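call fold(seq) -> tokens
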Amino acid sequence: MPMNFPWRHLLLSAITVGCFSLCASAFAAEAPTTDADSLSKARATGTKTRAVKKFYTREFDLSALPAYKPEQRVSGTIRQWGNNYLKDSGLMEELESGFRKHHPKIGFDDTQASSAVAIPGLVSGAA
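ret:
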């Protein structure tokens, strides 16, 4: 080898490659799952935990608002397709319960799997 061979660069390159290999194997051991079912269950657990947590402690005084009086009664089924966060959080049940107070003959058919089902539900006429 000639005297001007860059030994330092070769040594630094070897150390760098070694470090990247160690880091990559460490991250691979802790890599999050890509299994859709596991991810969905974990998300649902987190959402349900947040659903019972009180984020707002201030109560709003709505007494000055006029009472809602429906102009007509409706019956049948409302088919809702779309975002699962509404269903998982408990908000969907609250909204449906409030609606049923004024329209007791209404039913709900919820398909809240994902936002990805909303448009196909509309296009197919199922929602």
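The longest helix spans residues 7-29.
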